[in-house]
Amino acid sequence: MTTYARAHTNIALIKYWGKANKQLMLPATSSISLTLNDFYTDTAVTFDPALDQDQFTLNHQMQSPTAVSRFLDHVRHLAQIDTRARVNSLNHVPTAAGLASSASAFAALALATSRAAGLNLTPTALSRLARRGSGSATRSIFGGAVIWHRGSDDQSSFAEPLTIQPTLPLRMLVVTVSDQKKAVSSRTGMANTVATSPYYQAWVQSNEALISPMITALAENDLTTIGALTELSSMRMHAAIMAEEPPF
Fold first, then answer.
1. What percent of the chain shows pLDDT beyond 90?
2. Distance separating alpha carbons of residues 44 and 91, to the nearest angstrom
3. pTM metric for this prediction
4. DSSP-derived pairing of the beta strands 55-58 and 85-92
5. How far apart are CA 9 and CA 22, in angstroms?
6. Rounded mean pLDDT, 12-29
7. Least buried of 7, 59, 119, 130, by fewest C-beta within 10 Å?
8. Please, which residues have CB within 8 angstroms of residue 105's CB and are 6 or more apart in sequence?
9. Crossing angle for the helix pair 66-79 and 101-116, nearest 10 degrees?
10. Is residue 96 predicted with pLDDT exceeding 80?
11. Residue 83 to residue 113: CA distance in whole angstroms
């Protein structure tokens, strides 16, 4: 049986940058995002006993299955199966260009793969699973405004939707200046910021302090505060990044 899933990208208002645990993909801070309507990934997964290795196709092109196989291995462990899978994905968003294609990709993969493997996970469990592929994917399980609790272990680090008034005049405008792959991946950039920026720990503390005010602002239709907090988180993150060695 082939299982299909679609997941949308998300962009953080209160940023995620840097891991506290690389193996479990636990973030250094909590984050809050907005799920985007027009950017998404469609994924189809088939477990096939005839396969001797996983196959991964992205945008109709065969890819190395290494990262996908690593994720599939986790699902196979949960489902107690060892069957290899065929994964076909189509990105309706520029790939690896800074518009969170990995978030929609691994959120879609989490749903399609878990269902194809016979698992019926709750949204919270799906969020935890998606996190193992890409940190920000944990938020793409949900629409609207979403908080990712940083947590301290696999069980406590997950995302959930936030209360947001339907009358809130909040939209995200995306201008694609370039759809080419980033010169430095987010994963590499994060690791270097954590390792070399003297401002990183200060950013972690100040960013976490923005979480509660943002939750309140979203619930109370306070667009002015939402904008101010979003800018603060972004500019402080950029300051930490610019101070790393080498900066980018």
1. 85
2. 12
3. 0.94
4. parallel
5. 22
6. 95
7. 59
8. 7, 41, 43, 89, 91, 133, 134, 137
9. 40
10. no
11. 12
Containing H/E element for 219? helix 211-219
Tokens of 10: 């998300």
Cα separation, 193 vs 235, in Å, equals 14
Over the stretch 198-235, which tens digit does the pLDDT of each residue have?
999 999 999 999 999 999 999 999 999 999 999 999 99
Average pLDDT in the chain: 95
How many other C-beta atoms lie within 10 A of the C-beta of residue 24?
Answer: 15
**Measured between alpha carbons, how far is 169 from 32 in angstroms, rounded to an integer?**
17
100: left (phi over 0), alpha (psi -120 to 50) or beta: left
Specify whether the CB–CB gap between 32 and 226 falls below 8 A. Answer: no
Strand pairing class (55-58; 61-63)? antiparallel
**DSSP code of residue 133:** T
Alpha-carbon span 150 to 129, nearest angstrom: 14
Q: Of 12, 10, 11, 9, which is closest to residue 207 (Cα–Cα)?
A: 12
